[in-house]
Structure formats: C-alpha cells, structure tokens
Amino acid sequence: MEIGIAILVLSMGYLLGGISFSRLVTRFLAPDIDLNKVTIQSADGDSVRLRHMGATTASINLGGKVGCLIGWLDILKVFLPTVAVRLILPEQPYFLLTAIGGMVGHIWPIYYGFQGGGGMSAMYGGFLATDWLGTIVCSILGLGIGFMIVHDVLVAYLSGAWLMILWLAITTRSPLYVGYAVLVNLLFTAALIPEIKDQLKRRKEGKSDMKMDMATFPMGRGMLKIMDKLKIK
Q1: pTM for the structure as a whole
Q2: Beta strands in 15-77 (DSSP E)
Q3: CA 38 – CA 33 distance, rounded (Å)
Q4: How far, in Å, CA of 159 to CA of 154, rounded?
Q5: For residue 38, what are the contacts with CB-CB under 8 A and spacing of at least 6?
Q6: Are 148 and 65 in contact (CB under 8 A)?
Q7: Mean pLDDT of the chain
Q8: Whole-number Å distance between alpha carbons of 205 and 156
C-alpha cells in the first residue's frame, strides 16, 4: 500500500464525510431552526439537548421522512466514494481508509468546528461498501437481540456494529477487515460517550425504560408501531 495514495483516499473520505446534510437540508426547509438548540422531551418531563448534528436531530423538528432522507444521504456520502475507490484501486484495500475517513469526517467535520453527527449512518455506509449482505444481516440481528431478547435500546443501537466484527472475522479471516470493523466501532462509541453517560444516569435514577426512550424520537416511534403490529412487548 502506497502512503501517498493512502493519504489521498483517507483525506477524500474525510472531506466528503464532513458534509452535513442535516444542516444543509434544515437550512433549505426550515432556515429558522437552530439545530444547536434541539431538545427532546422524555416521558418523565425532562428536557434533553441533543449533542449531535445528524438525521435524528433534524427529524425532531422536520419529521421522520426528512430524517430518513438525511440518514440515506449520510450513508451515501460514505458508501459511494468507498465503492468508487474499491473499483478503481482493487489491488489493495484502500477503500477501507476511505470508509474510515468518511466516518471521522461525519463525526468531527472540519467545516463545522468538528461538531458533527453520531456516526451510525456513516458507519453503515462504509459497512455496505465492504460487505452489503453482512451489513443487512447484522443490523437486523442486532435490532432483534436488543429489542426482543435483551429489551435494551443501547444494545439494539450498538449491537449491529458489534456483530460486524464477528461477521468480517468469519467471512474474510483478514486482520485488515477485522481491524477496520473494530476501529469504526471505537469511533462510534467515542462519539456516543455523552449520550451513553446520560442514558446510564437516567437508568440509575429510574427515569428510563426501552419504550420510553424509543418514543422520544421519530425513528423510535416508527419502530414501536412495528413492534405493536408484531405484538412484541
């Protein structure tokens, strides 16, 4: 692997990943909304400020459909350049660097004072370009484990990414692929540390349960409807 090419694809991924579609779409549709001041109201009456500038933050004011659109744009901004690098430079796994750069750019964008999104959409954009089947299987399995077995929102949110480490270890047997999956999991966890701390604090105070947490944001409410139709408690 040539250092110059590695730096180039990593930088490209970072700069493209730093594009904040949550800011751009919100500015276009609702220029009066300040995403820095978006809060969610929990069932117990507490007001919690969202720290990240991603699809979930925008969806609080603009609705689930707009949030879904932003989520897909965030996936594609990492997926497309990663696939392009994989096709253009197939002899070496340069595309893994593109995916890592895209995720870092999404979480810590240079354009916006290094204040970006939580990283989930960007992470799955890279996973899709690396192994699309594994991404689908692991994300669905992770949600199933979190909601139906463990009954924990944090586990449902994080376990799909955890399972990708195991999937790539089994299917590729490559230290590079496994190292990539471990690294993006670490980046994802680092970005979510404030939210994880808040969630654990609320649980300790008895102010949190799975359905209460899911009801605070549009995607969660949509998943609750699906769970109700499937009669999942």
Answers
A1: 0.81
A2: 39-41, 47-49
A3: 8
A4: 8
A5: 49, 50, 57, 60, 61
A6: no
A7: 82
A8: 21
Which residue in 24, 88, 91, 86 sits closest to 102, CA to CA? 86
Lowest model confidence (mean pLDDT) among 103-112, 132-141, 208-217:
208-217
pLDDT of residue 46: 57
Angle at 63 between CA 213 and CA 145, to 5 degrees: 35
Angle in degrees, CA 137, 141, 143, rounded to 5: 125
Crossing angle of the two packed helices 218-229 and 64-88, in degrees rounded to 10: 100
105-143 burial, b at 16+ Cβ within 10 Å, e below that, comes to: bbbbbeeeeeebbbbbbbbbbbbbbbbeebbeebbeebb
Q: State how far the alpha carbon of 160 is from the alpha carbons of 116, 136, 204, 219, 222, in Å.
A: 21, 9, 25, 16, 19
Q: Give the SS3 label for residue 233.
A: coil
pLDDT at 109: 93
Q: Note the Cα 172 to chain centre separation in Å.
A: 23
Characterize 28-37 residue by residue with b for buried, 16 or more Cβ atoms within 10 angstroms of its Cβ, and e for exposed: eeeeeeebee
For residues 132 and 223, what is the distance between their CA atoms, to the nearest angstrom? 22
For the four alpha carbons of 192, 198, 201 and 205, in that order, the dihedral sign comes to negative
Please name the residue that has the structure tokens 């730096």: 7
Supply the pLDDT for residue 170.
96
> Which spans in 131-209 are helix H?
132-144, 153-172, 175-204
* Residue carrying the six token digits 């609750």: 224
